[in-house]
Amino acid sequence: MTKSIDSHLKWLGLLFLTGITAGLVASVLTILIHLIQAISFGYHEGSFSLQIAHVSPIRRFFPVILSGLVAAFGWYSLQKYGKPFKSISAIVKKQETVHPLSNFIHGMLQLITVSMGSPLGREGASREVAVALTATWLPLFHLSKNEISLILACASGAALGAVYNAPLATVAFIIESILLKWQKDYIIAAILSSFIAVWTVRLLSGNEIQYQLAKLAWTPGLFLWAIFAGIVISFVTFAYKALLNHLPKRDLTSQKFLVLTLIAFTLVAFMSLFFPEILGNGKAGLLYYLHHKFDFSYSLLLLIAKAIAVLITFYAGLYGGKIAPSMMMGGALGLLLGQAWNFLLPLQLSIPYAIIIGATLFLAIINSIPIAATLFLVEITGQPILNALPIALAVGTSLLFQRLMQKLTKRQNKVFH
Predict the structure, then answer these.
(1) For residues 150 and 15, is the Cβ–Cβ distance under 8 A?
(2) Which residues cross the membrane (predicted)?
């Protein structure tokens, strides 16, 4: 009995330590991101997302080129001279060995390059660094491989949730995206580590809502549009996901990787002369769609530019996240589809709500996290939980549409074979 209590207390302590580690990582990296962005783009007050459009075109261009150099030679050197860095998926599912220094550098390269203008997401930075630091103290405890995998999964997810101040979504993300199993001990571990990480950040940095919106209102048209969007936006998103999934895997020690990386970042830098919001993880773009006067041409072209920027950067073989870029691109689709609906039909809907639903759909499909995505957009916009209902309706429609398309594809394959 005493041994069982000691074991439970030890496990509880480990989860607390995991959450605190993830929270500290999120806090420190957030400060570093703002510092690198301010130095790179030369603004003295405000945030990158709000200031990037006011930075002179030439001042936008050169930091992105420099970011490409850091990316090319950083990952080239890490792969050639460092110990192999494993993906979080391989570490958790295949229980592969973590080399903390390599994963730490891998995460920091993502943070530096995105802060200097790479169009990819930066959530991978906090996840990689949290896993690296957690892996340094795990050997102090005698844990099984399964326990180590669970702790590292929680560290990875909790760091992401701490950056975005979204504990509920983080619990779902850990289960849906990393552990892939709704099991009681997994859920408890995810809840404890996620909430402790978020509370750590709130204690150190305050309770910031990153995309704060006033309470969004329901309308009859909103629910009809959610079903419509669940089909239309899903179709576009699945096509884009197919493109991403078919990109070749690069040898980071090859000359081709170096050349493609420099070409990709040069193209991104050139596009940023006309579309500054493509730079960074996508927050600037989503805030633009939410708060600026609607301009059809610019909104559409910005979406296309971001989609191309993300695609060519991944094509080159670079690393980065997909969460914020997905939200920006989905938000753009929601905006365009919502504006078209309001123009053509009498049943009006809230455009900010349409943007949030579009962002959720794109995020859910690209990252295969329907529940986490729904909760995520509610939390990061400061909405009451009931406002998840129209979002969930759109996501549910998307899932049904996906299953229908899979069945039709199977039938077609049977007919042709």
Answers:
(1) no
(2) 12-41, 61-78, 150-174, 186-204, 216-237, 257-275, 296-317, 323-344, 351-378, 384-401
pTM for the whole structure: 0.94
* Rounded CA separation 29/110 (Å): 11
Question: Which is nearest to 76 in space by CA: 278, 261, 334?
Answer: 261
Specify the 3-state DSSP secondary structure of 338: helix
pLDDT surpassing 70 at residue 1: no
Q: Where are the alpha helices (DSSP H) in 116-219?
A: 123-137, 145-164, 167-173, 184-205
pLDDT digits (tens, 9 = 90+) for 338-362: 999 999 999 999 999 999 999 999 9
Query: Residue for token digits 């070409």?
Result: 263
In a domain, 212, yes or no: no
Residues 243 and 111 in one domain: no
Tell me, yes or no, whether 200 and 224 share the same domain.
no
DSSP code per residue over 243-273: HHHTPPPP-TTSHHHHHHHHHHHHHHHHHHT
pLDDT at 2 over 70: no
Least Cα distance to 269 among 278, 282, 257, 260 occurs for 278
Distance CA 327, CA 343 (A): 24
The residues facing 321 across adjacent strands are 121
Q: What is the pLDDT of residues 57-110, one digit of tens each?
A: 999 999 999 999 999 999 999 999 999 998 888 898 888 889 999 999 999 999
198 with 342, same domain: the answer is no
Whether residue 214 lies inside any domain: the answer is: no
What domain count does the chain have? Answer: 2
> 154, 174 in Cβ contact below 8 A?
yes
Same domain, 198 and 335: no
> CA torsion 46→326→299→389, rounded to 10°?
-100
SS3 100: helix
Residue with the two structure tokens 């009681």:
184
Sequence-distant (≥ 6) Cβ neighbours of residue 313 within 8 angstroms: 118, 119, 120, 264, 265, 268, 320
Residues 16-41: tens digit of each pLDDT: 999 999 999 999 999 999 999 999 99
Residue 409: is its pLDDT beyond 80? no
Write out the residue range of the structural domain in which residue 119 sits: 8-205
The structure tokens listed for 133 are 């630091």
**Where do the DSSP E strands lie in 271-416?**
none
Phi, psi torsion values for 121, nearest 5 degrees: -75, 155
Residues 290 and 197 in one domain: no
d(CA 199, CA 211): 19
